[in-house]
Write a sequence for this structure.
């Protein structure tokens, strides 16, 4: 099994990088584990209390469950991955059944933050992008997918995303084996990354 961790700020282009990796591998040989699925269960909180949670702080994640499920996959055991809804700011009752695969991709803003999780990774990637580019992508995404106004997104960026990125996400860059500058727009770096991953895997996996 080959475990890849992909981190980077919100709107950095992680989704594009992950997509390129998935495209290069047979669908039955790779499993994607989004860190967003592992936000803490907030069933005991009211909607008003949930909306006050800082979801860009490490404390918002259930690190224990995420780490345990990656350990389970690595040991050959299947998992029931939680699902999360931004509309209700909580986990949903449904889970996603994930079988152990030759390649596991862990993707999220703080995928490289926890030491115990990093220790399970064979390759650590940080997707980098200029702050203004990330802001534009966040505006485009949140206004369409999460029902926020442009002003709401900008206010949240200045009050939460930017300071949390500088304090918690940017420092994890030093743990990366590979840094992809210019995010998803850096096609050459992404292709080099794909080529490296393919050559690291067994021929029967990608052949």
């Amino acid at each position: 099994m080959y475990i890849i961790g992909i981190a980077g700020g919100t709107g950095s282009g992680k989704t594009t990088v992950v997509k390129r990796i998935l495209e290069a591998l047979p669908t039955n040989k790779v499993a994607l584990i989004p860190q967003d699925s592992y936000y803490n269960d907030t069933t005991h909180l009211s909607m008003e209390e949930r909306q006050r949670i800082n979801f860009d702080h490490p404390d918002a994640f259930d690190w224990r469950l995420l780490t345990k499920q990656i350990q389970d996959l690595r040991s050959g055991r299947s998992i029931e991955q939680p699902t999360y809804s931004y509309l209700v700011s909580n986990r949903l009752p449904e889970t996603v059944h994930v079988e152990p695969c030759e390649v596991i991709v862990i993707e999220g803003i703080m995928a490289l933050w926890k030491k115990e999780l990093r220790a399970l990774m064979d390759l650590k990637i940080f997707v980098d992008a200029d702050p203004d580019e990330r802001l534009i992508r966040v505006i485009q995404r949140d206004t369409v997918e999460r029902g926020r106004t442009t002003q709401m997104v900008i206010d949240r960026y200045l009050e939460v995303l930017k300071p949390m990125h500088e304090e918690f996400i940017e420092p994890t860059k030093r743990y990366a084996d590979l840094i992809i500058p210019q995010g998803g727009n850096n096609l050459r770096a992404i292709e080099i990354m794909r080529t490296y991953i393919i050559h690291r895997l067994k021929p029967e996996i990608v052949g």
User: Anything to note?
Assistant: The chain has a mean pLDDT of 88. The first helix runs from residue 14 to 23. The two ends are 16 Å apart (CA to CA).
